Each structure stands twice: as C-alpha cells, then as structure tokens.
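Example A, followed by Example B.
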Amino acid sequence: MAALVQYVVLRKDLQSGLGWPLGALVAQACHAATAIIHLHYKHQQTQEYLQELDSMHKVVLEVPDEVTLTGLAETLKAANIDHKLWIEQPENIPTCIALRPYPKEEVHRYLKKFKLLK
C-alpha cells in the first residue's frame, strides 16, 4: 500500500496582504480538510488514511493569491482530482483547497510548483 498524503493549499495573501490572523488561516485549512474527508469518507483511500490516526501525513502549501488558488481548483477538476475549494462565508472568499488523501505520486505533479506554507 502506497503512503497516503493529504495536501492542503492556502492563500498566502490572506495573511501577508489582507492581515488575516494566523488562527483564521489555520481555521480555513481545517474547514477544507474536514469537508473533503466528509465528502469522500467512503473512498477506500480515505478509509486507509483514517486507519492510521497517529501517523497521518499532511502537506500544507501556499499560493500567492486568489487567482492562483482558483486556477489550481480548475486544474484539479479537469484532472478529476477529488478536492474541496473552501469559500469562506458570508464574505464569499476562496481561501483554501484540500485534496482527499492520495498517494503522493498521483497528485504531486499538480502541486510541485508550490512551496510549503511559511
């Protein structure tokens, strides 16, 4: 069984440009990660990922802005990669994308140009 990883991608400009506190950014990641696990709870890879609660692997990446985030969502949709674009309400602001757990080699090519969140 290939090691499974859950990727989470956040907009860096929410914190650096728009002044969102770190806690708000973390909340966006939590919302998106929880939502995608819920939406794909019965998927075999999600079930395998959840069996190893003490060794779950997540990678948190950053994109510079909303345009890059929504572009990534379109790319993932076109490639049939299961993901959730989290849109914060009531402001209607796209903030984060989380993928369901995947083997890294299946999705890395879509994410390799993005850096780890700092």
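Example B, a separate protein, is given below in the same form.
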Amino acid sequence: IGFAMGTSWGTIALILPIVIGVFPSQDPLFLVAIGATLGGAVYGDHVSPISDTTILSSAGAQCNHLRHVATQLPYASVVAAVCIVGYVIAGLTGSPWISLGVGVVLMIAAIFVLNISKYGAVKA
C-alpha cells in the first residue's frame, strides 16, 4: 500500500487502526505488529517512484529520478529482508526480544558481508 500510495503517513493512517483492532494490547506481539506496520509503510514509501520524498531527493541531488529509486532499492530491501526474518521468528517464538536480538545480529552480518563484497576486505 505504501508503494502504491507513495506515502508512509497515509499508509500508517490507513493500516494502523486495523492492526490495533486485531491484536489485544497485552499480547507480546502487539508491538511487533505495530513495528511491522510502520516498517512496511516506510519501506513502501522509500522504494516508491511516486513518493514525494523520493521525487524531492532526486530533484535535490540533481540526478535521474528512476536511477535514484534503483540505487535506494538494495539498501531498503536488505533491511526489509532482515525485518521479515525477525517477524517470522517473533511469530514462531511469541517473543519480540528474541527476534530483536536476531535482527541486530543479521544487520551486523549484512553490513560485514556487503562491506566485504564492495571492498574485498572489511574497512573500519
């Protein structure tokens, strides 16, 4: 929805009331569901070529708009992939804290892997 609308705030306003209605606030996965909603909305907005912030960023940097979208997609998608793994782990374990720890470890690993693939060695 964020990708199609090009707005994270509009997506949050549309989806968050539904998510809040589905999960009771005492459920440990309540915060995970809210986080998934916010993260998905921001991801969709960030990779959407019709997003106002994407258009303004490419215009401000004076670069080709679709090239800017293409360069931002890998960065946002790495974070989205780590989040998806974290959400699955949270759903299986019923604990947001285990998935948070796994997500931090996966992000650090992704940074090292991407750094090695770019430079051939880890640079500080």
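On Example B: The longest helix spans residues 65-93.
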